[in-house]
Amino acid sequence: MVKIYKPGKVAIVLHGRQAGKKVVVIKQLDEGTKERPYPHAIVAGIERYPRKPTKRMGKTLLARRSKVKPFIKTVNYSHLFPTRYALELEGLKGTVSSDTFKEVSQREDAKKTVKKLFEERYQSGKNRWFFTALRF
């Protein structure tokens, strides 16, 4: 079987609360785990995208509108749609793992680090497609 969901691959969630949102695969689990015997992936995505800046905006308004609200979750492969895009985020690999989901405080800390990394990536202007919503 060809591995489609490699770490760094951008995909779109098809089912559930975050349906239609873009995610980046952090870790793929092709054989599954004890709790989830089916193949799935640990992903980090954008729940609320940054809003479009305009020329007239000041620095504070730009800073407020460029915020990103992330989410992390495990998703079944059949609920993901792969895209041709990839996103290299080395900081994410150590941040989110299977153990992150066991305790709420670990999950919140992981979300904060993901948020920081996503906002830095957005501010630098890289991967513009990832930070725009599919539909307006």
Automatic annotation (TrEMBL):
<dbReference type="InterPro" id="IPR041991">
    <property type="entry name" value="Ribosomal_eL27_KOW"/>
</dbReference>
<dbReference type="GO" id="GO:0005840">
    <property type="term" value="C:ribosome"/>
</dbReference>
<dbReference type="InterPro" id="IPR038655">
    <property type="entry name" value="Ribosomal_eL27_sf"/>
</dbReference>
<dbReference type="InterPro" id="IPR001141">
    <property type="entry name" value="Ribosomal_eL27"/>
</dbReference>
<keyword id="KW-0687">Ribonucleoprotein</keyword>
<protein>
    <recommendedName>
        <fullName>60S ribosomal protein L27</fullName>
    </recommendedName>
</protein>
<keyword id="KW-0689">Ribosomal protein</keyword>
<dbReference type="InterPro" id="IPR018262">
    <property type="entry name" value="Ribosomal_eL27_CS"/>
</dbReference>
<dbReference type="GO" id="GO:0006412">
    <property type="term" value="P:translation"/>
</dbReference>
<dbReference type="InterPro" id="IPR008991">
    <property type="entry name" value="Translation_prot_SH3-like_sf"/>
</dbReference>
<comment type="similarity">
    <text>Belongs to the eukaryotic ribosomal protein eL27 family.</text>
</comment>
<dbReference type="GO" id="GO:1990904">
    <property type="term" value="C:ribonucleoprotein complex"/>
</dbReference>
<dbReference type="Pfam" id="PF01777">
    <property type="entry name" value="Ribosomal_L27e"/>
</dbReference>
<dbReference type="GO" id="GO:0003735">
    <property type="term" value="F:structural constituent of ribosome"/>
</dbReference>
